[in-house]
Amino acid sequence: MTSRDDLDAPLRVPAAGPVADAVGGLSPCVKPAYWDEATRHLMRKDRVLKRLIPRFGDACLESRGDAFGTLARSIIGQQISVKAAQSVWDRFKVLADEVTPRAVLRMRVDDMRAAGLSARKVEYLIDLALHFDSGALHVEAWPQMDDEAIIRELIAIRGVGRWTAEMFLIFHLLRPDVLPLDDVGLIRGISENYFSGESVSRSDAREVAAAWAPYRSVATWYIWRALDPHPVSY
């Protein structure tokens, strides 16, 4: 997955991959409760997904279960490749026993820069840590909040744009009906699978995705897999 938002734009290769550790192969995962119903719905409603979904067996969307870590990874990976992002993350996490908001606030800026972070990304990570540590984010309420309310809360953090917030909804909160129209990977996948490679507008993508509701996150995940078959965890 790749965003087109300049502030939020991971220019990554391959196109279908957030800042993540690639999962080797298509091994079974612990499915979100809605997954089986979602795949049945999508295969009934969409001829392309009817063909794609069986190709990926038991592979499915998974969450790391760590809200701060997920957002920190997304910031670290902006505008760099998946491989480079993982390298920086590996060096960054050595700076603390555990990557937590307070641990980040205790880190020395020089050490963070030496790990490969730009000055701007250091600022973003510190702002992220301050939002978590101060209680400015309603983390405990997120499971009950609607998607747009969570997005509004997250984009108040420096370095977090709508694309990152949508990736958080999909990969951390496992929300079933997110359509990330700023994602270049999704647009490319729709172009290749529905329009024979022709240029696709956001309006075109939204029209295709109308049949996917209320499981647009799941459909998006399979469109990403059509570009890159290795599932990732954000």
TrEMBL record:
Reaction(s) the record says it catalyses: Hydrolysis of alkylated DNA, releasing 3-methyladenine, 3-methylguanine, 7-methylguanine and 7-methyladenine
InterPro entries for the chain: Alkylbase_DNA_Glycosylase/TA, DNA_glycosylase, HhH-GPD_domain
Gene Ontology MF: a single term: DNA-3-methyladenine glycosylase activity
Entry keyword set: DNA damage, DNA repair
Pfam family, one: HhH-GPD
SMART domains: ENDO3c
Top EC category: hydrolase
CDD domains named among the record's database cross-references: ENDO3c (cd00056)
GO cellular component: cytoplasm; protein-DNA complex
EC number: 3.2.2.21
Domain HhH-GPD: 76-228
A biological process from GO: DNA alkylation repair
Family to which the UniProt record says this protein belongs: Belongs to the alkylbase DNA glycosidase AlkA family.
Protein name per Swiss-Prot or TrEMBL: DNA-3-methyladenine glycosylase II
Organism: Tibeticola sediminis
